Amino acid sequence: QLQLQESGPGLVKPSETLSLTCTVSGGSISSSSYYWGWIRQPPGKGLEWIGSIYYSGSTYYNPSLKSRVTISVDTSKNQFSLKLSSVTAADTAVYYCAREMATIERHAFDIWGQGTMVTVSS
Amino acid sequence: EIVLTQSPGTLSLSPGERATLSCRASQSVSSSYLAWYQQKPGQAPRLLIYGASSRATGIPDRFSGSGSGTDFTLTISRLEPEDFAVYYCQQYGSSPYSFTFGPGTKVDIK
């Protein structure tokens, strides 16, 4: 079955760029009707959508993060990636990648990675 | 921007009891774009309900969703021990493309 796995550094220094990759296995990232998203969760807090990407490269970002976020896709590797620039301690969170069902009838994240904790600290 | 409010913040119930969780939106939401998730400690969220009332694959029928407009409800008919968790509602908006999550309701054991 389809699985997603996040990877990347667990510690990032303030003002630097956080970079994570999500590897999709058991299925193709180029499937129609699905977007691929990043969601984060600060310790002890709720969920925040960061952005989503289609396999063609179309992207949508949370307006509150848009100036610092870049999401890209590599269909040859079945991966998509997140870059978040100028990080501060407020960006410390568990970062999840997820598959987004995206049709006129539904928009929801149906398959999630296990999440990866990223701490911003010097 | 649509804001989601969930109530109560915490619901203390016993196994076998019925749980009723509320999600209220600051403006009308298309039922097609309202979802519910369950999250247990140390785990990723799991999709329970999409389109306000459709159960996701593998979700037991004790979970049901209802509602429209600004008021939505997740009902767990009879709580099983594994149902004690945090539940989030989520809405999708198309203009602009965005997702918003509610703050969550924790269902814990009484």
Topology diagram in text:
The complex is a heterodimer of chains A (about 120) and B (about 110).
Chain A: E1 3-7, E2 11-12, E3 18-25, E4 34-41, E5 48-53, E6 59-61, E7 69-74, E8 79-84, E9 93-103, E10 106-112, E11 116-120
Parallel strand pairs in A: 2-11
Antiparallel strand pairs in A: 1-3, 3-8, 4-5, 4-9, 5-6, 7-8, 9-10, 9-11
Chain B: E1 4-7, E2 10-13, E3 19-29, E4 34-39, E5 46-50, E6 54-55, E7 63-76, E8 86-94, E9 97-101, E10 105-109
Parallel strand pairs in B: 2-10
Antiparallel strand pairs in B: 1-3, 3-7, 4-5, 4-8, 5-6, 8-9, 8-10
What can you tell me about this protein's structure?
The complex is a heterodimer of chains A (122) and B (110). With 122 residues, chain A is mainly β. Chain A has strands spanning 3-7, 11-12, 18-25, 34-41, 48-53, 59-61, 69-74, 79-84, 93-103, 106-112, 116-120. In chain A, the strands form two sheets. In chain A, strands 2, 4, 5, 6, 9, 10 and 11 form a seven-stranded mixed β-sheet that branches. Chain A has a four-stranded antiparallel β-sheet with strand order 1-3-8-7, with no helix packed on it. The model of chain A has no long low-confidence stretch (mean pLDDT 97). By secondary structure, chain B is mainly β. Helix content of chain B is 0%, strand content 59%. Chain B has no helices and ten strands. In chain B, strands 2, 4, 5, 6, 8, 9 and 10 form a seven-stranded mixed β-sheet that branches. Chain B has a three-stranded antiparallel β-sheet with strand order 1-3-7, with no helix packed on it. In chain B, a hairpin with a 3-residue loop joins strand 5 (46-50) and strand 6. The N and C termini of chain B lie far apart (36 Å). The chains are: A mainly beta (122), B mainly beta (110). The A-B interface holds A 37, 39, 46-49, 52, 60, 62-63, 96, 98, 101, 104-110, 112-115 and B 1, 32-33, 35, 37, 43-47, 50-51, 54, 56-57, 88, 90, 92, 96-104.
